[in-house]
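Narrative of activities, Objective 1.

The group set out to show that a structural description can be obtained from nothing but a protein's sequence at a throughput compatible with the screening campaign. Below is one input-output pair from the validation batch, recorded exactly as produced.
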Amino acid sequence: MGSASSAYRVIYLDVDGRIQKVVFSRFCSPCDIKELLCTALGVPRNTSLSLLDSSGAIVSIDPTMPHNTERSPYRVVPMTSGQLADKEELFQNVLTQVAEQFSRAFKINELKTEVTNRLAMLEKRVELEGMKVVEIEKCRNDIKKLREEMASRNNSNFLEDNKKLTPRRDVPSYPKMLSCLEHMYHDLGLVKDFNINPITLKRWLLCIHDNYKNNPFHNFRHCFCVTQMMYSMICICNLQEKFTQVDILILMTAAVCHDLDHPGFNNTYQINARTELAVRYNDISPLENHHCAVAFQIFSQPDCNIFSNFDPEAFKQIRQGTITLILATDMARHGEILDSFKQKVDNFDYADEEHVTCLKMVLIKCCDISNEVRPMEVAEPWVDCLLEEYFMQSDREKAEGLPVAPFMDREKVTKPTAQIGFIKFVLIPMFETVMKLFPQIEEAMVQPLRESRDRYEELKQIDDAMNEVQKKKSENLTMGGKKK
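Output recorded for this entry:
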């Protein structure tokens, strides 16, 4: 053990020519030692001091200061207010310079701006999410009332066993769309089974909404309709009994993301106009590749990554499955995908991964172009929206000297002619093929398509008759003019 004297330090001071011995504990604080030096010097305790050694160097006032002797005493110099002001000014100048350099090196101003903008965005989201709490409760009440009303009418569009949402629904308002999408993920057990953070799910859906453009057709409402139809397919076809939950998660997520950041002009325009997207993806499904890229840019944000609890291998499976389905929505691949499914459907094997993948591709294709499955009062406005987007594209193609597709030319196309061919040769064959595997969709989905086809054929007959009458009138006027 050390002696008691080792707990103390001794230094010597030169106070006006006389040597002053100062003893203090090595456990003293610098402030205690400073007050002791002020006492030895005979100045007020709050006086600022400088401690100098025999060479004039400044010594730090603390318990670890170097030991000295009577022959080499320290000199204590009280600092005047002027000196203090100069030092303070020097210190402030140095501090200002350091702050400026630090700010430039670490881009502090840019970070402040980013943080401010981020806070504003979060405040907006908090406000929206607060509104959604009210909206989701109202949405649930509306669904409950609707179910009760439909049940009283014995309407077969609602499944009696678990009362799922059906495809025959109008499009709700924006807050309700978010709430309904959120409800679907919860209702299918995806949030619970994959430990998805409910707040992250909300933020992801808000970010998805923000990344759909305000096009006439390819907008967030279309995203909602496709996802709601996928949810209905899952429920009506009892897909959760045949697919894994990972497959269900892929189907729903691909539906949500399938048209992200759609510019309102299709792949044909992108390729003919040699746009940045067409160049980037070598004319191979440029839009669908872009939708995938935007989707996974969103997932790369930690606060929007609903897959954060997946291990790398599981995430790889989710990513590949989602990309495969989104790329399948390119209508240029329609014949290839449907033909492949037709070859498998008669001997379909749920244990065969290739069979299951092909079915998932067909399912998302069905949902993507399923508006005519819905009631006429819901479906017809969507035709108007699609034609408006087509006409915007054809107008631009004419202005830029690019080829124009006849079904997009406002001078050639009519609503009946646009719909009849599409329903007869695209929609009905695809849904009827799926019906071989799931007969239960005939009443809910295939029959409405047949009724829609018949209605548009009747409209075309009326249009043709009116055009014939108009033509005869014009001919009669022409003949009458010649006789005169």
